Amino acid sequence: MNKNKTSKLLGILGGLGPMATAYFYELLTALTVAGCDQEHIDMVISSRVSTPDRSAYILGQSNDNPLPAMIDEAKKLEAYGANLIAIPCNTAHYFYEGISQNVSIPVLNIITETINHLCDVGVTRAALFATEGTCKSGTYKSYGRGKVEIVTPDKEDQDIITSIIFDDIKRGKEPDIDKFIKIASKMKTLGCNRVILGCTELALIKKNFDIIATDDFYVDSLEKLARKTVTECGKVCREQI
Asked: Is 89 considered catalytic here?
């Protein structure tokens, strides 16, 4: 296989959180059709874990705006020579315009790619499992308007999803998969054709639990971003991994 001359240097604005960033790198590597190291994607990864909490700011629980830190990291990636940027964090896309307007290189959008996938497979109503910040911000509903109706869990179920994200996955603990599936089943009875794993930490559930990984009812937003990233970097993307 010859080296693709259209290859680009990818900048990853990561650390939001770090486990999702690490898995994003793993996904990019697994999805890229390559016969040797040199045929994979050249990339530089920023992992500024000290970036203020996105959900806390969106929910008014903190006055510490994370946008300046994310803009600063995006500019560093551009200065390093990155040709495009990917952000493996759904909640951070509340600040997407602020980030993209402060660099002169393209910034891929995880929500756009997820909504586009849902449209491609004919989904008209989908449940969103995400941080409370992402749900309250309305980003998915805004991007899906006129295309896909986005349904969020009630408060009791959202509290469980929030706990799975912050108390389990982010702390390296095994989540209660039975509770997770129970909420997903409830959303199906409400007419949802798919459940969006709209927090990049939730991608780790699909990675680690076969009952989720083998069910196309669950749409992994991180995987959709990874697939778009591979092709935008001038590489061939595998259909299956």
From this structure: yes
pLDDT of residue 2: 37
From 135, 192, 199, 233, active-site residue: 199
In this prediction, residue 178 has a pLDDT band, given cuts at 50, 70 and 90, of very high
Contact 65, 208 (CB under 8 A): no
pTM over 0.85: yes
- Partner residues linked to 128 by β-bridges: 196
Terminus-to-terminus CA distance in the chain, angstroms?
A: 19
Buried b / exposed e across 55-90, counting CB within 10 Å, b at 16+?
bbbbeeeeeeebbebbbebbebbbeeebbbbbbbbb
Pure H helices in 91-176: 96-100, 110-120, 132-137, 139-144, 155-163
- Residue 235, classed as helix, strand or coil, is coil
DSSP state letter for 174? P
Q: Exactly one of 36, 89, 135, 237 is catalytic; which is it?
A: 89
The per-residue pLDDT for range 22-56, each reduced to its tens digit, is 999 999 999 999 999 999 999 999 999 999 999 99
Angle between helix 155-163 and helix 177-189 axes, rounded to 10 deg = 150
For the question of residue 199 being annotated catalytic, the response is: yes
